[in-house]
């Protein structure tokens, strides 16, 4: 008799460290608010499964927010990233940044553009493609900037 084990996926930066909050100048910061999905378990995960809900906030005048991550990203898809397990580097997790109103930043090296003059905008970190995820700790740092 075989018993399948299901372990928790710990998303370190998803528990949550915004590695950098970039801004127009040192005195003007964009704030990131991140909330990880509770109860994530290893196993088969479907494309588009939300693992983090985020908001970027700035009360400064702007036309858009630029959001990006610190992980290795795809050369062909600016919002897609590859995460490596901290316990075993063979463990991989593919994720992407998404928003209802955003678009990929294919001009300045990757990430997501959230065009808005509003003080805040929402985004998601989601599973990129159906995949079998091995239990491990995966780290992803976020950064944001305002666009004048």
TrEMBL record:
It comes from the Bacteria. Residues 1-26 form the signal peptide. The keyword Signal applies. The keyword Lyase does not apply. Pfam families: AfaD (PF05775). InterPro entries: Adhesion_dom_sf (IPR008966), AfaD (IPR008394), Dr_adhesin_sf (IPR037028). Keywords: Signal. This is Uncharacterized protein. It comes from Izhakiella australiensis.
């Amino acid at each position: 008799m075989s018993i399948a084990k299901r372990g928790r996926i710990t998303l370190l930066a998803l528990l949550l460290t915004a590695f950098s909050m970039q801004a127009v100048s040192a005195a003007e910061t964009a704030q990131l608010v991140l909330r990880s999905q509770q109860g994530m378990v290893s196993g088969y995960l479907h494309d588009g499964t939300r693992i983090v809900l985020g908001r970027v906030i700035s009360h400064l005048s702007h036309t858009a927010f630029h959001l990006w991550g610190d992980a290795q990203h795809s050369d062909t898809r600016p919002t897609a990233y590859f995460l490596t397990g901290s316990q075993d580097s063979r463990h991989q997790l593919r994720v992407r940044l998404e928003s209802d109103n955003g678009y990929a930043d294919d001009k300045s090296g990757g990430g997501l553009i959230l065009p808005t003059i509003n003080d805040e905008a929402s985004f998601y970190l989601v599973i990129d493609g159906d995949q079998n995820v091995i239990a491990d700790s995966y780290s992803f740092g976020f950064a944001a900037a305002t666009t004048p």
